[in-house]
Write a structure and sequence with these properties.
Length: about 290
C-alpha cells in the first residue's frame, strides 16, 4: 500500500470499436478522453453527466474492465495495464462494479447461493462448500436479506432485493473499491432510499472507496464528497460537492443542475455523520 489516492486516472483515454468502414475494419472511437481523476482512500466521488457522456465507460476502465487506449489507471499505485498473472488477480479482487440492472446482471439460472459462492470459488476463498455457503449467508445478512434467499432464484425477488444481491456479490471478496453505476435506476423512490442507505452503511462499515455514477445530482450531493462532471468523455469540472453544486463554474454543470432541479431532501440525509444512526433496520423489504 502506498500513500495518495486509492484510484487514479492519468490522462486516460478509453476507446470502443467504431462503426465498420468496409472490409470488416472498425476504427476505434474514443469515448473517454484525457481524463485526470483521483479517488481518495475511503472517499466517495460522484460521476455525473448526460446520457452517453462516457460515465459507464470511465467506471469500467477504473476497475480494469475496459483497457486504456492512452494514459493509465493506477490502483493503489499499481498500473492496471502492467499487472499480470497473480498480481492482476489480486488487484481484480480488490475492485468491483455494481451494475445498473440487477435483472440482467444476475444469472437467472443460478440460485442466489450459487451466485454468491461463485466469486469465492473463483478466487479460492475459504475451503469447501459448507464454509462458502456460510459466507454467502453472512453476505445476505449484511445486505438485510433472510438466509432462505440462498435457495431462491433472481425472478423470485423484487427489484430492490435483486440489487441487494448485486451489492452482496460485489462485497463478497472484501474489495477496497467499488464503482456503483446507476444502481437505483428503475426502482421506486422508497426502495431507492433503502438501497442508497445500505450502500452508505456498508461503505462506512467496510471502509470502501466509492465511485458513484448517477444522473441524480441530489443523491450525489448527499452521498459523495467530490463530484466529477463529464461532457462528451471529458472532465469539464471537478471538486468538492458543495462547491460545484452551489457555484458551478462551467455552463454545462449549471445546465445539468437546471435540467435536474435538486429536490427537497430530508435534512437527515444532508447530515452525513448522522446517516448511520438514521439507517432503518434492514428488513427483507425493498
Ligand atoms: N462497447 C461499445 N461499443 C460501441 N459503443 C459503445 C460501447 N460502449 C459504449 N459505447 C458508446 O459510448 C458512448 C458512451 O457510453 P457510456 O455508457 O459510457 O455513457 P454513459 O454516460 O454511462 O451513458 P448512460 O447514462 O446512458 O449509461 C455511447 O454513445 C455509447 O453508445
Amino acid at each position: 500500500m502506498t500513500a495518495g489516492p486509492l484510484v487514479e486516472a492519468q490522462a486516460l483515454t478509453v476507446a470502443v470499436p467504431g462503426q465498420s468502414r468496409g472490409f470488416g475494419r472498425r476504427i476505434p472511437r474514443d469515448i473517454v478522453r484525457g481524463v485526470d481523476l483521483a479517488v481518495p482512500r475511503g472517499g466517495a466521488v460522484g460521476l455525473v453527466g448526460e446520457s452517453g457522456s462516457g460515465k459507464t465507460t470511465l467506471g469500467r476502465a477504473l476497475v480494469g474492465l475496459a483497457p486504456a487506449a492512452a494514459g493509465r489507471v493506477l490502483f493503489d499505485g499499481a498500473d492496471l495495464a502492467a499487472a499480470k498473472g497473480p498480481a492482476l488477480r489480486a488487484l481484480r479482487a480488490r475492485m468491483q462494479m455494481i451494475f445498473q440492472d440487477p435483472q440482467s446482471a444476475l444469472n437467472p439460472r443460478l440460485t442466489i447461493g450459487t451466485t454468491l459462492v461463485r466469486p469465492l470459488e473463483a478466487f479460492g476463498r475459504l475451503e469447501g462448500r459448507r464454509a462458502r455457503r456460510a459466507r454467502a449467508a453472512e453476505l445476505l445478512d449484511l445486505v438485510g436479506l433472510p438466509g432462505d434467499a440462498l435457495d431462491r432464484y433472481p425472478h423470485e425477488l423484487s427489484g430492490g432485493q435483486r440489487q441487494r444481491i448485486g451489492i452482496a456479490r460485489a462485497v463478497a471478496l472484501e474489495p477496497d473499491f467499488i464503482v456503483a453505476d446507476e444502481i437505483v435506476s428503475g426502482l421506486d423512490v422508497s426502495t431507492q432510499a433503502q438501497i442508497l442507505l445500505l450502500l452508505e452503511d456498508l461503505r462506512r462499515r467496510l471502509g470502501l472507496t466509492l465511485v458513484f455514477i448517477s444522473h441524480d445530482l441530489s443523491v450525489v450531493r448527499v452521498l459523495c464528497d467530490e463530484v466529477v462532471v463529464l461532457l462528451r468523455g471529458e472532465v469539464v469540472e471537478a471538486g468538492p460537492c458543495a462547491a460545484v453544486f452551489d457555484a458551478p463554474r462551467h455552463a454545462y454543470t449549471a445546465a445539468l443542475l437546471q435540467a435536474v432541479p435538486l429536490p427537497e431532501i430530508d435534512p437527515a440525509w444532508l447530515d452525513r455523520p448522522a446517516l448511520a444512526a438514521h439507517i432503518p433496520p434492514l428488513a427483507a423489504s425493498g
